[in-house]
Description:
Elements: E1 7-17, E2 29-39, H1 46-65, H2 88-97, H3 127-131, E3 156-160, H4 177-191, H5 194-202, H6 224-232
Antiparallel strand pairs: 1-2, 2-3
Helix pairs in contact: 4-6
Amino acid sequence: xxxxxxxxxxxxxxxxxxxxxxxxxxxxxxxxxxxxxxxxxxxxxxxxxxxxxxxxxxxxxxxxxxxxxxxxxxxxxxxxxxxxxxxxxxxxxxxxxxxxxxxxxxxxxxxxxxxxxxxxxxxxxxxxxxxxxxxxxxxxxxxxxxxxxxxxxxxxxxxxxxxxxxxxxxxxxxxxxxxxxxxxxxxxxxxxxxxxxxxxxxxxxxxxxxxxxxxxxxxxxxxxxxxxxxxxxxxxx
Length: 237
């Protein structure tokens, strides 16, 4: 019985210590996560597709971390027990069930290949058969419904350096410049006050003595979460 799995996402994550640090015990870790999306053809067992996709993700994680290569598994080949309704194969099967011959369907008649001769018994030939030219085997006819290997969408690979915190404090996820720009644009559309936003940005100046004015990209990473919280409640002056 086929599995109920029809598709999904496989996520594999692993990490290893950065190399080259004086004290390996305190070396930060490098974490890598790989996500692969797979689909299962209708009526097929989903477990082979899941296993093959998981193995590919595992191999990619090892490659990104510089670990020894892991064994790869081949993708399962899609097979179909019954022809798709309305297809050429389904129509031919219906005609055959009603008594149609190979000639009616436009195919060359199929004959069984002769078995090997027993030793010591020469084959019988006739003068007509000796003069007749050798039969040319018919070229195989391409079936438009021939089964093919299903292709998964391109994998999405996510990698980052998890430096951790040697003091035991929880790690703070970095906030990108693009996230800051999007948040500012969204808030400005509400309050319509660029002056108020610029003033808020300057309150996060890491060194006012050296930098009279800063832009969003110069806000320290450790203070960006606080900036976003104050931006959410900012009002026009």
